[in-house]
């Protein structure tokens, strides 16, 4: 029972989320991968607060920031999906690759 | 100290449900697998003594995933999972990248000499967080508030199909709205 256990769980969640964000073709599933990555950051931040610096609230503030980042990502992601779907009927990342050229 | 068994169990379940997100076919099941992963992470946060943040995570993620189910069924080609189809690209490369990152992080976790514990957890961690956000971390809180407000404005702008500038011109001076199907009674 230690800091390392929680950090490994966080790293696992981050890796699973990264895999999803890289492989998924659907924009909504890609956002799920990003959320899982932030999920791992929450575990790591909570563990750091408890095991490294419980005297100050900085670790807790970091979790608040990550939770806010999740909410912002979700809202903006869905707004972008709505806009691009309405404009061009695109719901897959491969169909929205024009900027690559 | 913390009891190790629930931490292990919650962590393993969070990882399993996180992996299920990319294995299941049905979009509703996928979303609830993601919700389960968040709830187990909230369990870890509660175990670490952060009661307020754990409960916030539970409440926020339940609402967020219920909204997400609606969007998933709106935008996915295969919402019910009745027609199994591959929605992946570049699986092998991505698995190599994700696996490499996990191995690198794990090696780092066990090699780094983490600092000794400084201080003790406060009797009321929620009070400590509130005092911090309204005191020394006020700038963080204000930045977050501004970012959330910008998000509200930007998401409404992006999601609006035809706003008043489309209907009444850039200076909003048109006598009649320019609609695809004119309404009114013809006066």
Largest sheet of chain A: none
CATH first level of chain A: Mainly Alpha
Average pLDDT metric of chain B:
86
Number of H/I helices of chain A: 3
Structure class of chain B: mainly alpha
Number of domains of chain B: 2
The rounded distance between the terminal residues' Cα atoms of chain A is 50 Å
Class derived from helix and strand content of chain A: mainly alpha
Oligomer: heterodimer
Q: How would you sum up the major sheet of chain B? A: none
How much helical structure, as a percent, in the residues of chain A? over 70%
Coarse morphology of chain A: elongated
Give the strand tally of chain A: 0
Cα Rg of chain B: 24 Å
Based on CA atoms alone, the radius of gyration of chain A comes out at 17 Å
CATH topology of chain A, by name, is Helix Hairpins
* CATH architecture classification of chain A: Orthogonal Bundle
List SSEs of chain B in N-to-C order: HHHHHHH
Report the sheet-strand fraction of chain A. under 5%
The shape of chain B is: extended
Estimate nothing, just give the exact number of structural domains of chain A: 1
GO biological process, one term (chain A): ATP synthesis coupled electron transport
Main location (chain A): membrane
EC number (chain A): 7.1.1.-
Membrane topology (chain A): Multi-pass membrane protein
SSE layout:
The complex is a heterodimer of chains A (101) and B (187).
Chain A: H1 3-23, H2 27-51, H3 58-88
Helix pairs in contact in A: 1-2, 2-3
Chain B: H1 4-20, H2 27-47, H3 51-75, H4 91-111, H5 125-133, H6 138-159, H7 164-168
EC number (chain A): 7.1.1.-
Membrane topology (chain A): Multi-pass membrane protein
Pfam families (chain A): Oxidored_q2
